[in-house]
Amino acid sequence: MYRKILLTAVAVIMWLGAYAGEGMWLPLLIEKYNIDEMHAKGFKLSAEDIYSINKASMKDAVMIFGGGCTGELISDKGLLITNHHCGYPQIQSHSSVEHDYLTDGFWAMSADEELPNQGLKVTFLKRMEDVTIRVLNGVTDDMNMNERKAAISKNIAKIMEEAVEGTHYSGLVESFYYGNQYFLFVNEVFSDVRLVGAPPSSIGKFGGDSDNWTWPRHTGDFSLFRIYANKNNEPAEYSAENVPYRPAAHFPISLKGIEEGDFTMVFGYPGNTSEYAPSFHIEMLANFIYPKLVDIRTAKLNVMNRYMAADRGVRIQYASKNASIANAWKRWKGEIRGLAKMDVVSTKQAYEKRFDEWVNSSDDRKAKFGNIISDYENIYADYSQYRLVRDYLNEYIGGLGLETICISRRFERLLALYGDSNHDSETISTIKAMTEAQLQMHFKNLHLPLDKETATVVLEMLYQNIPSAFFPDITENINNKYKGNISKYIDEVYAKTFFISQQATLAFLNGFNSGSVKKLNSDPAYQLYKSLTDVYQQKVLPRYNELQNRLDSLNRIYMAALMQFDNERTFYPDANFTLRVAYGDVRGYEAGDAVRFLHFTTLEGIMQKENPDIYDYHVPERLKQLHAAKDYGRYELNGTIPVAFTATNHTTGGNSGSPILNARGELIGVNFDRAWEGVMSDLMFNPDQSRNISIDIRYALFIIDKYANAGYLLDEMTIVE
């Protein structure tokens, strides 16, 4: 008992104070809040070297890659590096049994061999600006939530329009501190991005899901792309006339290596954190939501893994889907474990008790903030249930491994248009073209037996795990006609739907007219999808959104109150996929009793893990040959090759592919993961075990140069020996 009290007290102290590695800081405010500490830790450059609108700076070399990763420029010819798993959808889309780039890797040996990627974009920040006063202009405390949102939305639209008027830039205004502050981001988006190189998955995904979210890692998680622009160096759609983009800045690459304790900085786009969420939120996730989601994804993965192991073609089709499903599945498991180990619920409860005592010590504060904690308790009692059903239905109608049911939703826009007497042929043609591209990709990556079995298993789980009040109206038919036998019901759905046939589905699309509406509505796959969607939209979302609005309002007030209560603390904003700086140092950690992890791994570990019977641990023959010959070139360190390292930088999803930089702003690695023991850092940072994991840039260069014989790419890089 004494030990638990002591651990909780220590955790409270840690949570209230700032410690090495914690925080995702806005680059615009580095000069104000962080640069002195960064210099004290060894950083050699200025805040303006990180972010400037008056001269080239690091921000000009960092980008959003696709829709959920970070990338960075490593040459003055538009060459960028990101993670292999970030480029995975593009690598997979170019792969086939005949040209299996997932298994064999891909290397363009000239510009002519670089592969275009439809839909892939990269986004650069041009500038950011605090626009809080303008966003909140006319907003008053007596407004209800809907009135407040409407006023804010109107102000934001005007700000964005004015910010990009007369330019090819795009604008975005994001909320910080739960709506207590707002920043404008002006961006430049490039859409001609071509695949240059990717190692085989046996390097880029070495360890696979077995090693995901763990340390030690031996994964060469990188891929190379190139940005193209028009002759004016501006964004342009793909064209053979486009030329490599000439960036304002790119990162020099250091071969000097790392030592434990060295300064590190991560510059990227972290996706989402909830560091200031109340104890009720943590309890909901750890004890109610995450366990159910882990179970449903375990079931999906069990089916998928069995089919993928038995058929090479299926493995290629489902590689990206499998990785997407497994990533959150393993993270949730790690968060459950980490939150329990740190006793985060009790830690936050103790903090909330102190907060309540502070509130109640003043009549003025009591009037403003006196009901916050009790309001949270009341809202979460209801919200937790609706959040579970929402998340559970998303596992079905969100298309994660259930393609035949969900592909029918691609016709809903056409369905809506034909219900509108004012529909025009141009709009319909555009939607049909988009839908056809989606259908082609869908059928390219569909294995019907896998999909059907997954649909059966997951629908059975849905009935077992959500309250009967949220059962879809298809339930009556299942109970009456099929005596509750889900397997027989799914058999008939797949036997009668035309969505299992590419030819029939494309013919239906191309001939879609007002008479097609009846056929769509009578299709059993669409009926199942629609039945589940109706529950989602009619029974879940209205109440869920109502509760979420109440939480949004309460979170804003609570955040403002915390800043008054804890007024000596510097609060960094939660991640929201905007550009951030995190800094710390290279460091290993203690994973448990008598388990101490070093801060780096080497090629020797790859050879030790090699197991030809396990797909995740295949080692390419070429890599084994280089190891046997000790043919390491200038990347050698103590008779081997460094592969990956850990540091104390605060990262999350979205930071995948982020540059990890040394004190001189030189690239030393590419961030790709977090250590299992500290994965709950989205909710509470653990300085003892929260570690980001990066590929050592020397390993990436070794693979490019010695393994792939694509050393010509190094000629355009700025390499510091």
How many helices? The count is 27
Gross geometry: globular
Helix content: 40-55%
Mean pLDDT: 93
Structurally, the number of domains stands at 3
Q: In terms of structural class, how would the helical and strand content be classed?
A: alpha+beta
Low-confidence stretches: 1-19
Descriptive report:
With 721 residues, this protein is of the alpha+beta class. The chain has three domains: 2-121 and 191-268 and 581-715, Thrombin, subunit H (Beta Barrel), CATH 2.40.10; 130-188, no CATH class; 279-562, no CATH class. The chain contains 27 helices and 22 strands. Strands 1, 2, 3, 4, 5, 6, 7, 8, 9, 10 and 11 form an eleven-stranded antiparallel sheet that branches. The chain has a seven-stranded antiparallel sheet with strand order 14-13-19-20-21-18-17. A two-stranded parallel sheet has the order 12-22. Strand 19 and strand 20 form a beta hairpin. Helix 1 (2-16) crosses helix 13, helix 11 packs antiparallel against helix 13 (344-360) and helix 11 runs parallel beside helix 15 (372-397). The termini are far apart.
Summary?
Helices cover 47% and strands 15% of the residues. The protein is α+β, with helices and mostly antiparallel strands.
